[in-house]
Amino acid sequence: MKSKKLAGTALLIAGFVLYFLVNEPQSAQAMHIMEGFLPLGWAIFWWVAFIPFFILGLRALKRITKETPELKLMIGLAGAFTFVLSALKIPSVTGSSSHPTGTGLGSVMFGPLPMSVLGSIVLLFQAVLLAHGGLTTLGANAFSMAVAGPFVGYAVYRWLMASTGKQKLAIFSAAALADLSTYVMTSLQLSLAFPAESGGILASFAKFGGIFAITQVPLAISEGLLTVLIWNWLQAHSTEELSLLQRVMKGGRSQ
């Protein structure tokens, strides 16, 4: 019965995915760094930086699905949640847009490494189907959203759980800071590639970060609240899966 309820949730999220595939405007300028925007050297650099995390993530996912195949549906749920939230583009300033990332939930559930795979798959589909991001910039976008965000979110979650024991606070903070750290990393990537003539990298970083903060700070807070609501639903309807997941995480097998 619990698996059927979880399957129903996955189908609901899949419906949202289909909606965005059909209705998303293809010419929108998205927050993900768009195709061809980065100089070739920086595009290659971020691909090289991202690939080791992707390989480790594949190993982590393989280990999870082999040892606990019951969690495959939960993995799909985490990936779909990331896809739907990161497809919600909200107009920002200077012709850009902001959006939630959705990586905090998966980071809390499975740790940061599996999210490097799930997040990069999401980014690939968005680049191909939604003109959201790009293929040459996929390495940079994946490093910010599928590596930096999940690692920060997971570290915050573990720290707050160890220091306060308040799970809801830890989940909210993990989701919100995973979101914000993604945009901090994106601002850094853009400032490294395009330093300001006056002030250099720091001035450019302040400019990009200030632009995104206008919409991203309230979005991060909203994402944190939504992630807590999803977690509450999972606790109410998927207690067996969450218990199994927590045992796996305590055993360190997903890392």
Automatic annotation (TrEMBL):
Gene name of the encoded protein: cbiM
A Pfam family: CbiM
Recorded family membership: Belongs to the CbiM family.
Subunit structure, interactors included: Forms an energy-coupling factor (ECF) transporter complex composed of an ATP-binding protein (A component, CbiO), a transmembrane protein (T component, CbiQ) and 2 possible substrate-capture proteins (S components, CbiM and CbiN) of unknown stoichimetry.
Keyword terms, alphabetized: Cell membrane, Cobalamin biosynthesis, Cobalt, Cobalt transport, Ion transport, Membrane, Transmembrane, Transmembrane helix, Transport
Ranges annotated as spanning the membrane: 40-61, 73-90, 110-131, 138-157, 169-196, 208-234
Membrane topology, as annotated: Multi-pass membrane protein
Protein's cellular compartments: Cell membrane
Keyword Ion transport in annotation: yes
Keyword ATP-binding in annotation: no
Pathway(s) annotated for this protein in UniProt: Cofactor biosynthesis; adenosylcobalamin biosynthesis
Protein name: Cobalt transport protein CbiM
Listed Gene3D superfamilies: 1.10.1760.20
Function, as annotated: Part of the energy-coupling factor (ECF) transporter complex CbiMNOQ involved in cobalt import.
